[in-house]
Amino acid sequence: MKGLKKDLRPKQHKQRILSEFGKHISKGQIKFLKAGHLDFFETKRRGAFFEDVSTGKRYLDGFSSAGCFNVGRGNPEIIKELCAAAIQSDMGSAGLLSKQKVQFAQKLVGVCPGDLKRVVFAGSGADAVEGALKLAIGASGREKVISMLKAYHGHSGFSLSANGKDYYKELFEPLMPSFDFVPFGDLEAFRKAADKNTAAVILEPIQGEGGIHVASDEYLWGLRKICDDLGIILIFDEIQTGFGRTGKLWACEHSGVIPDIMVLAKSIGGGVYPNGAVVYRDIPVLQNFVEKHPRFHFSFGGGTDIGCRVSSKVLDYIVENRLWENAEKMGGIIREGLLKLQKENPAIILEVRGRGMMLGLEYKHDFMGMLMAECLSRKGMFAAYSGNAPQVMRFQIPLTITEGEAKEVLDVVQAALKLMKLYFILLIPLSRLPLSRRLVNDPKVLIFANNLLRRFGL
Ligand SMILES: Cc1ncc(COP(=O)(O)O)c(C=O)c1O
């Protein structure tokens, strides 16, 4: 009896956390998580895994908080540096001189391509996007910004305005004026939209939230040329693609196109301490603006002394372990395996795409994203479908995984696909009729139905 009580304790603990989360943070979020069996209670975190003590199960982290854990979950070397930094200093005063800021800035520009040699710090990804757009608008003296349909750049003023899907924005209109949107990959559409009043174009070299769409080299070179001709500032948001994820340290290295501004966050903090940076080219138009307005962008959470020490260690770790090479190799193994699964499951998988360890699996129907998240979770893996494209599963596993773990990923995906087919007895016929197809692909209906099933312990 005593033993049973002890076994129940973690479950009761999770129940209490769920209830308090609902009370103080959001019941809606709990419903969303439960619908996809994503209500994990992360406890121990190491490498490519985390544990949920309430179920006693170990899960592969197939999402990495959309690319925050490139150096692995709970990396001991990064944690050691964080602890040492916190003991030896504090965050430091924003804007004042510090060795930590200078050392990290030097190290960062040392591994950035071309003349990306100057840094503005930021407190988060969205904050870095704000800084980049303010720099471009301020320096050019122009108003218009061109962004991409399906793009995701964050949840604050300029960054929210740059998102390419109404779903993020419609509740908050009117946002920043002068934002234009063109289809990602369509150079002619960009050429038509761009003019002498365009300050900047911003894009992700691989759209993450939009459903893992890779920009071709020709497209990026075409953008570079039009930007050079019209004096437009080219901004790459490498918040998800940076720090080795795509098989190079920076995704822009695949094409060799150097942006005027590169935006960084997420894995810059090694998954343990937030930081962000805007790296920009050492060219007069940008440099003069920053020198004239040194406080044009400022955040007390960005470029802190602790953050800079952690980020320096992250860069050392990535470079010493050549993590981008592991991303290329392990990503290749996973991609091959997913392509094989696509051949075996043509009624489920439409396409496998991506680069390095930034892979996407597109399903035939929207409802399959949430269903697959659930099946993967039941089989031991956390993977998220795209917020902007629910029919696309994103695989963004920590870059530290071994070959054995890469094979485990494929075993789990295979088992999840098998499990998913059981649901098809009901769902595939429903997806054939227009009205029921709309219902089964509607996220709100899916969340409601799945929560109902969870209530009955299914
Ligand atoms: C490409 C991209 N840009 C910007 C952001 C915003 O970053 P943050 O959540 O740190 O504000 C994200 C976050 O998911 C992102 O993936």
Q: Any idea what the radius of gyration is?
A: 22 Å
Helix content: 40-55%
Shape, per Cα inertia axes: globular
Strand content: 15-25%
What CATH calls the topology of the largest domain is Aspartate Aminotransferase, domain 2
Count of distinct structural domains: 2
Secondary-structure-based class equals alpha/beta
Unreliable stretches: 1-5
What is the CATH domain class of the largest domain? Alpha Beta
Mean pLDDT: 92
Number of helical runs? 18
Characterize the biggest β-sheet: 7 strands, mixed
Strands side by side in the biggest sheet: 4-12-11-10-7-5-6
Q: End-to-end distance, in Å?
A: 27 Å
CATH 2nd-level architecture of the largest domain:
3-Layer(aba) Sandwich
Strand segment tally: 17
CATH superfamily of the largest domain: Type I PLP-dependent aspartate aminotransferase-like (Major domain)
What ligand species are in this complex?
pyridoxal-5'-phosphate
